[in-house]
Amino acid sequence: MNWKQIKKQTRGENLDSLTGVLKKNVAEERIASIVNTEHTGTLFLCDVNRLQRINNQYGHLAGDECLKQVAQILDYMTHRDDILGRYGGDEFIIFVPSCRREEQAQEICRRIEKRFRDSAGRESDRISPTVTAAYVLCRPEDTYKSLLGRIWEELEKQGAGQHTSSEQKPDRRNHYIKDVKRVRRELIEQIKEPGAFCQNYETFKGIYRFLERGLIRSGQEACVILLTVVDEQGGSLIPYEKDTLMEQLGEYIGAALRIGDVYTRYSSSQYLVLVIDTTEGQAGMIAERIKERFLEDGRGKDILIHHCYELQPARFGEE
Q1: Which CATH number fits domain 197-310: 3.30.230.10, 3.40.50.300, 3.30.70.270, 3.90.1150.200?
Q2: How would residue 216 be classed by pLDDT, with cut points 50, 70 and 90?
C-alpha cells in the first residue's frame, strides 16, 4: 500500500494538520519498517529555504501558506510507493524504495529543487518558497537511525536554511503586527448598503449562540422573531407561489431592520430575525411594521404571522 492510499484510509490524527501529509512519527515508522527489513531505497530531506524570514517579513499566515505549497508540490511529485511526511517545522522527508542508484537520486534532487525555482519565477504575485534537497542511499548495514544521521550531515554541507551574511538576517520586530493586519483584512466586512445582515441558517445559529453566551455578562437585550407566511386558513402556500413571495419578504425585512440585526431564511415559508438591544414588545412592533408593508403590496389571501421571544443568558448543563 503506497502512502497516498494510506492518507485516504488512515484517521486524521496520522496526518499533519497544516499540510495534510503524514506526521513525522507515522512517516518514520513506515520508513523504518522498510529500511530495517529490506535495506534498500533512498532517503530524501527537503528543507524550505528562509521560512523564518518569510514569517518575519510577511507574517506567519504567509509562512503557513508556503508550507502548504511545498506539501502539495511534493505530494504531486511523489510516486506510488514513496512515503512523504512532514519531519519538522520547515523540513519534509521522502523515502523512495525504488531509488537504488546515485545518478537516480541526484536526478530526483535536481527535479525537486528545479520545480520550486521554476514556480518561484512564474508566480510573481505570491510568495513562492524554494527548497534545498539532500539524499542518502541505503546501505546493507543501515538502519533508519543511521540513514537519518547521514542525511542531516548532507543537508548541513549544503548550508540549507543558514544565513551567510548580516544583510540576510530577518527583522524580527514587526512580524506579529503583519499577522494582525492580515487577519483584519480577511475578517473585516465591507458594508455595501444599509440594512440588516442576511446570513445562511448555520451562520445565524452561530451568531445567536455567541450572543446568548454574551448575555451572561453583558445584560444586553435581544429578541428572535419568527415570521411565517400562510394562507387565510393558516395552512401552507402552494409551492410555486412561495419563491417570489419569500424573496420580496426578505427585502422588506432587510429594509425594516437596523444594520446590526441579523436574519435568515428558516424554511420555504419562514424567516428568522435576531434583533439586538430590543425588548419583546419592541420586537412585536418591528414585526407589525413588516406585516403592514407585506399587506400594502396586495398579497391577496396570504397572511403573515409572527412569534417573538427574548433571549436569555446561556445556562450551563441545559439542553
Answers
A1: 3.30.70.270
A2: confident
Cα separation, 41 vs 137, in Å, equals 6
Q: Give the right CATH number for 3-160+173-184 from 3.40.1190.10, 3.30.70.270, 3.90.1520.10, 3.40.50.720.
A: 3.30.70.270
Q: Which of 43-47, 116-120, 157-161, 214-218 has the highest mean pLDDT?
A: 43-47
What kind and span of H or E run contains 43?
strand 42-48
Q: Are 239 and 268 within 8 A, CB to CB?
A: yes
Which helix (H) or strand (E) element contains residue 11?
none
- Interatomic CA distance for residues 8 and 25, integer angstroms: 18
Per-residue pLDDT tens digits for 152-199: 988 888 765 444 333 344 454 555 666 677 777 777 776 666 677 889
Is residue 120's pLDDT more than 80?
A: no
Residue with cell 428558516: 266
CA 108 to chain centroid = 32
